[in-house]
Specification:
- The complex is a heterodimer.
- Chain A is α/β, with parallel strands linked by helices.
- Chain A has a six-stranded mixed β-sheet, with helices on both faces.
- In chain A, helix 6 packs across helix 7.
- Chain A is globular and about 50 Å long.
- Chain A starts with 12 loop residues before the first strand and ends in a 7-residue tail after the last helix.
- Helices cover about 65% and strands about 5% of the residues of chain B.
- Chain B is built from 19 helices and two strands.
- Chain B has a two-stranded antiparallel ribbon.
- Chain B is globular, with a radius of gyration of 21 Å.
- At the A-B interface, strand 2 and helix 2 of A face helix 8, helix 12, helix 14 and helix 18 of B.
């Protein structure tokens, strides 16, 4: 990261964010709504990897959020280690009208932590909030789980757009904040040339390099 | 059966309309051919969006398909109807002494292999596929009515597999004029649910919905589609591609990784540098057998070879996709760029011969 510090301030950030959660909870539609403001009652079920890149500005810096989407069926979990690699953020999604998808959240979190850095910023998302009559998971339960796991929480509807922007923007901002703190910490440690906790700093450096790697503007 | 087979008339008129405006674009027609997007319906009634250039390639391919049809009819006239249904030598390792086979069988096997590589005419696909894949033989080992009995016996049963199938039915090629109708959903459901009970180790794996849907379109009857699905999973493909942890699919990825290193070392080295793992794209390719990635006629051409020669064609096609855009891949700086390049390549691969040469 630091080797980029002297370069022109045109550099921007690329954050890799993964969407995870059971099949048919609406991952692809959350992404379609956020990236293109579109919604398909029936979009093709995702098998491989799809992604969209969205740009936003924080503190005058251009942030590119590259959001990855993949299959949700359980047996696919074993082929997706490459999917998680380098992710700095995750939206863990369930369907408020299907309790099972909520109960599987802890397994998704385990998966996320097994394949990525513990510091990956995570937002818990209860999607399909428009299905009020079919609700099986209360907002309180969602909040409680998020608190217990120390996650942000939001209920969304990709269908009527409720909170979709909010979910993604909150995540990106939080990643940016975490990263800024780390970079700041790194700069503080740097001048004496000796790092009190080399291991930690190396990890942070790697964080910034692989995940938030600044990319040149075209 | 489906009433939604081919709509050549409609398709050609779409393209023709686009082309007749051509004179207006003179001057920078090359740019326009690449950038002007047209929509057309392909040989299996999928709506395709592509550039004018894609549409032109597509038209050429259609002509070639007709040409191939004439070759097959001519052979049918000289060799007799259904000559291709005779026994064939699928590999020398089967232990059949070549000398014991009649010269005709040997010649036919060679001729057929060459013909199939150039494409089976759409009208003959059901017959040829059933024969060369071994599906017809497989079916002949069970009593008549097996499929009907199976689908009746499993009616109304609810399992993890059927629940997942129900989620996926409307999400399998949405907006296809037959597949995305109540009839289409019902037929696809019977095939997938039936198979999930035939092999409970597989049950249902996402991806099979796309495979079975295309089989229905080609084979035209559910029963034939079912047997093609069975022969694919039980004989043609690597074992355990679709079972619980997709272990067969892992094996395929590993083989493909090695092949890439051997055949396209520069790409392999660059991908390693970017920390790009082939599973990011090849999972979908190998599980859907390209049905979700390639245009339908191109997919069919891959499957023609798949059923006659076996699963190794999947690697050949995957390698060809990487090779087609070697320079761009080598210039890519991010994993995301590589994925985009490959998605783009597959979606516009309207010329099957470019992939299968």
């Amino acid at each position: 990261m630091m080797k980029y510090a002297d370069e022109e301030p045109t550099e921007d950030y690329l954050f890799k964010i993964v969407l995870i959660g059971d099949s048919a909870v609406g991952k692809s539609n959350l992404l379609a709504r956020y990236a293109r403001n579109e919604f398909y009652p029936n979009s093709k079920s995702t098998i491989g990897v799809e992604f969209q890149t969205q740009t936003m500005e924080i503190d005058g810096k251009e942030i590119k959020a590259q959001i990855w989407d993949t299959a949700g069926q359980e047996r696919f979990r074993a082929v997706t280690s490459a999917y998680y690699r380098g992710a700095v953020g995750a939206l863990v999604v369930y369907d408020i009208s299907r309790r099972q998808t909520f109960e599987n959240i802890t397994r998704w979190l385990d998966e996320l932590h097994a394949y990525s850095d513990m510091s990956v910023v995570t937002v818990l998302v209860g999607n399909k909030a428009d299905l009020k009559d079919a609700r099986e998971v209360s907002t309180e339960e969602g909040t409680a789980l998020a608190e217990a796991q120390n996650l942000c929480f939001v209920e969304t509807s990709a269908l009527d757009s409720t909170n979709v922007q909010l979910a993604f923007q909150t995540l990106v901002k939080e990643i940016y904040n975490v990263l800024s703190r780390k970079v700041f910490f790194y700069q503080e440690q740097r001048p004496d040339g000796k790092l009190s906790n080399g291991k930690t700093v190396i990890l942070q450096e790697k964080d910034v390099d692989s995940a938030g790697a600044p990319t040149r503007k075209y | 059966m489906f009433g939604a087979q081919t709509k050549h008339g409609e398709m050609s008129s779409h393209i023709w309309e686009s082309q007749k405006k051509k004179p207006i674009w003179k001057g920078n027609s090359n740019v326009l051919r690449r950038n002007v997007m047209v929509r057309f319906s392909d040989l299996y009634s999928f709506t395709v969006e592509g550039s004018l250039e894609d549409a032109n390639v597509f038209n050429e391919v259609r002509e070639r398909v007709k040409e191939q049809g004439r070759v097959w009819w001519a052979l049918e006239a000289s060799k007799g109807a259904g000559w291709y249904l005779q026994p064939k030598i699928s590999s020398m390792s089967e232990g059949i002494a070549v000398s014991s086979l009649s010269l005709t069988v040997l010649t036919n096997t060679i001729v057929l292999k060459r013909l199939i590589r150039k494409g089976i005419p759409p009208q003959l696909r059901p017959k040829v596929w059933l024969s060369v894949s071994g599906a017809a033989k497989k079916r002949s080992t069970v009593p008549d009515g097996y499929y009907e009995d199976l689908t009746k016996a499993v009616q109304g049963k609810v399992t993890a597999a059927t629940r997942q199938i129900d989620h996926d039915l409307p999400r399998t090629f949405p907006s296809h004029p037959w597949l995305d109708t109540p009839d289409g959903h019902a037929a696809l459901r019977r095939v997938l649910v039936g198979y999930s009970f035939r092999d409970s180790h597989v049950g249902y794996c996402q991806g099979l919905n796309y495979v079975a849907a295309v089989l229905l379109l080609v084979m035209k009857t559910e029963e034939d589609a079912f047997w093609m699905l069975a022969v694919l999973l039980e004989n043609v493909l690597v074992n355990d591609c679709y079972t619980d942890n997709l272990s067969g699919c892992h094996v395929e990825q590993r083989v493909f990784r090695d092949l890439l290193m051997k055949k396209l070392p520069r790409i392999a080295a660059h991908l390693e540098h970017l920390e790009f793992d082939v599973s990011l794209v090849a999972t979908e390719w190998f599980l859907c057998l390209f049905a979700k990635s390639l245009p339908s006629e191109t997919t069919m051409r891959v499957w023609d070879v798949l059923f006659n020669e076996g699963a190794k064609v999947l690697f050949r096609v995957a390698l060809a996709i990487f090779k087609m855009r070697e320079d761009e891949i080598l210039a890519a700086q991010h994993i995301g760029d590589v994925i985009s390049i490959l998605h783009n390549t597959t979606h516009h691969a309207f010329d099957p011969d470019a992939l299968l040469k």
